[in-house]
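Lecture notes, unit on binding sites. The following record was shown on slide 14. It pairs a sequence with zinc ion.
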Amino acid sequence: MIETVKTAPIDGQKPGTSGLRKKVTVFQQPPYLANFVQSIFNSLSGFEGKTLVLGGDGRFFNVEAIQIVLKMAAANGFGRVIVGQNGILSTPAASHMIRKNQAFGGIILSASHNPGGPDGDFGIKYNASNGGPAPEKITDAIFAITKTLTEYKIIQSNDVDLSKIGAVKLDAMSVEVVDPVTDYLAMMQELFDFDAIRGLFQSGFRMKFDAMSAVTGPYAHRILEDVLGAPAGTVLNGTPLPDFGHHHPDPNLVHAKAIYDMAMSADGPDLCAASDGDGDRNLIIGKSQFITPSDSLAMLCANAHLAPAYKAGLAGIARSMPTSAAADRVAEKLKINIFETPTGWKFFGNLLDAGKATICGEESAGTGSSHVREKDGLWAVLLWLNILAVRKQSVAEIAKEHWQIYGRNYYCRHDYEEVASAGANDLVADLRAKLPTLKGQSINGKIVANADDFAYHDPVDGSDSAHQGIRILFEDGSRVVYRLSGTGTEGATLRVYIERFEDEPSKLAQDTQMALADLIAISRDFAQIAKYTGRQEPSVIT
Ligand code: G1P
Ligand code: ZN
């Protein structure tokens, strides 16, 4: 029976960089979740009788939220929902599931790399029929509807048993509970040379993959250990836990330090890798050689032709603006286009759909390709394995050769997390005000070649996105970029991206923070970070 429940708008349900993220305790208060789900449905039309894909990263409140979404999808007239067993679907697997089944769209429940558990974060986002995050025009429409919503629809029914694979009816709608790994594994087998990777493991190559007690556990166990023959124990923290074992499921050098230390030890594995809460990010560390995500993007693009799916070459490369220009040098050599987009995977969707870009990446540990419309953590790991299997060199050797050929973009990001929003906004406003007169000026002896607030014109649909980050470009090719995070749930997070190109990397210190010391000082002084945030040092350096 369909029930129409009266409700009232809830303030602040504005989807950010990737959907709506808030504390679990906020989502748990009815009608917070129901209001947002109804707003998603009201922003769409023509889905009656069509298919919706549904799944999440297994965090606290995942299964409760899935039951609510199922009952609302049935009440709103969807014909079928495909849901991952036990509510589990990694973000890239959900994207694939939408595409493979030609679904109308999908709802993904995740707060990505944010902590979980009863006091942690929860999130929800809508992906369109191309499998990618809803473009801004849809998220803007959803937000507008949240401000005027007066009722939502839900059916009265028992919960669906999410543990049993198979189809059941929920009123007139069919619910198909599917294994979350099978289809994703089949796609990876098509993209990569599994025999070559199997041979690599047989030859004694050793890796550790840290699933961080998050969604990639079942995927990694099945693909790396069961199918590719990596020894048992290759996958660490391989069981998804609602609170990620009290850890932050963020594969950076702070939260994945254990695996970093392993890679740096004298008898460490040949490759250490990790993924985040919902499986779309990746961390790659060779034996004694950390690869920054920006470098990883460039190295994957330079070597992608070694994997079956990309042997014909790449149509183009896309990177988010704050990502280093290392990939630009590869594109130049390959004579293909490079696109610079605002932060957030949704901006790659049109380029991928139009066949203008094949591989995309962000400095925030996200890389992916046209196989889905999300970044894909395990995909990046498998592409690295495929390349290592063919080149028969270590990660460090591949990196060294890459820098010799292309030069090296020294790069780091400093995050000032959970600072007061007012101060962060003032800092940005102050920077913006300084922009018009910066060109030609000297900051600590470095001359500004150009300074702007990044704006993007989408070459496919013609849409414009302004205020996407403040860039200060210096005459020597180095740069500092500032932007505020769109994914945090408390206060504001200031991200500062620092980059310097060196065509003879042997001239510079190996240590990135040392190589970038003068720019780091500029980044702090110029924006008066201590004054506006009260912080002397960033909380996370990557
Ligand atoms: C962050 C990353 C961005 C990524 C997003 C979702 O967003 O910086 O590259 O697409 O998470 O994973 P931000 O918090 O910076 O808005
Ligand atoms: Zn993620």
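Take-home: The chain has a mean pLDDT of 96.
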